[in-house]
Amino acid sequence: MIANMAALGAALCWAAGGLIAIGPVRVLGSIAFNRVRLTIVAAALLVATTLLGGWQTLDTGAALTLALSGLLGIVVGDMALFWSLSRLGPRRNVVIYAANAPLTALLAYALLGEALGPWTVLGVALVTLGVMLAVALRSGSTHSWEAIQGNLLAGVSVCLLAAVGQAAGSIIAKPVMAAGADPIASAAVRVTTAALMFTTIGVLSAVRGGAAGAGAGGLGGLLVPRGLTPKLMLQIAGNGLLGVGLGMTLLLVGLAHGNAGVVATLSALSPVLILPMMWLLTGQRPSLGAWAGAAVAVAGVALIVNR
């Protein structure tokens, strides 16, 4: 029950976080957005872990494993996820990203020996079909959040890459969490690693492009990216604390107590949660194709959970 509730909580955090992120991502770009939000969340998690004494649950090996998990799940996963978010909009992006659930179940079977029965195989097929339907029968909405920017196939492909990164990161972290690592300390290691990596990417990009033209005022643009306003900063902080801080911690709690495939599957309910959120915020009803795709994906989720 703890694992299931934690995974559902992560799904809710990610659905809401995706809506908060769309504006800042389209203004700042995925790398600058991630650098700012991960720096904020890393600082918060480091302070929380120190105050709560979570460091004692991690040894060097566990910390390195979690760092690798962060590189794949956050750096690779988030760079791809938010790049595609700026192209596809939040609804399509979250629906496609739900593919991380069957991918995690398959990797858990192959690498961790977690059973993958015939009902799970059928569930994987239904989730995949649901993703295809949700994209193929996309909404004709004219709201700015629904606009496709750039090539649709490129956006879908990069979003699927994000799903692979998330799945791999979860599988790598699973043994560490099952061994008793503190979820907040584990999230702190993963997020701090990712924040340092995004900062390094920013520095290298600034140096390669010429410090004088990088960001807002040379290398200083790494701290204050061009276009960053107080309103955007609040949105980034909200997204980070909700989607990364709380959402990731809940996911790690789920991995510590439950089956990796089941946890990933329940956390993939974000497509279902985001549809009514979009309807409420935009006033525009999602298309029947979006509902149909989400329904098929949920059917697959149900089969995987009940295998």
From TrEMBL:
<protein>
    <submittedName>
        <fullName>EamA family transporter</fullName>
    </submittedName>
</protein>
<dbReference type="InterPro" id="IPR037185">
    <property type="entry name" value="EmrE-like"/>
</dbReference>
<keyword id="KW-0812">Transmembrane</keyword>
<feature type="domain" description="EamA">
    <location>
        <begin position="154"/>
        <end position="305"/>
    </location>
</feature>
<dbReference type="Pfam" id="PF00892">
    <property type="entry name" value="EamA"/>
</dbReference>
<keyword id="KW-1133">Transmembrane helix</keyword>
<dbReference type="InterPro" id="IPR000620">
    <property type="entry name" value="EamA_dom"/>
</dbReference>
<feature type="transmembrane region" description="Helical">
    <location>
        <begin position="94"/>
        <end position="112"/>
    </location>
</feature>
<feature type="transmembrane region" description="Helical">
    <location>
        <begin position="6"/>
        <end position="29"/>
    </location>
</feature>
<feature type="domain" description="EamA">
    <location>
        <begin position="2"/>
        <end position="135"/>
    </location>
</feature>
<feature type="transmembrane region" description="Helical">
    <location>
        <begin position="236"/>
        <end position="256"/>
    </location>
</feature>
<keyword id="KW-0472">Membrane</keyword>
<feature type="transmembrane region" description="Helical">
    <location>
        <begin position="152"/>
        <end position="173"/>
    </location>
</feature>
<feature type="transmembrane region" description="Helical">
    <location>
        <begin position="36"/>
        <end position="55"/>
    </location>
</feature>
<feature type="transmembrane region" description="Helical">
    <location>
        <begin position="118"/>
        <end position="140"/>
    </location>
</feature>
<feature type="transmembrane region" description="Helical">
    <location>
        <begin position="262"/>
        <end position="281"/>
    </location>
</feature>
<feature type="transmembrane region" description="Helical">
    <location>
        <begin position="288"/>
        <end position="305"/>
    </location>
</feature>
<feature type="transmembrane region" description="Helical">
    <location>
        <begin position="61"/>
        <end position="82"/>
    </location>
</feature>
